[in-house]
Amino acid sequence: MPSEVSVQIFGLKKSAATRAAERFFKERKVKIHYVDLAAKPISKGELARFTQKFGLTALLDTEGKAYERLNLAYLRLSEDGYVQRVMDHPELLRLPLVRGGKVLAFGEDPAAWARMLEG
What we know:
Belongs to the ArsC family. This is Arsenate reductase like protein. Pfam families: ArsC. The chain is an alpha+beta fold. The protein has one domain (about 5-119): Glutaredoxin. Helix content is about 45%, strand content about 15%. It is built from 6 helices and 4 strands. Strand 3 and strand 4 form a beta hairpin. The termini are close together.
């Protein structure tokens, strides 16, 4: 495996899936660029990259406490409205969002993470 392989992980320290992604890549000695969404919100451009590939509704954690707490099940929002809520409340996302080269993944997805290392 080439040593220049690196991944970017967008997540929250309290997220078990984010920690699983960090562990997966550390065990394989892959360089990680970690973005703690509690400290620095994801940029609109970066979020757009994931929403273009998967769609915003796939990225939303509709079963999560934050979704319920913010009453999103009852609100009718435009996509921009959802994007703004996600930027303000990253726990609405199925974390982590992981980018390795041209491969994108969200949530706990070891199969996609392994594909990032194939390139």
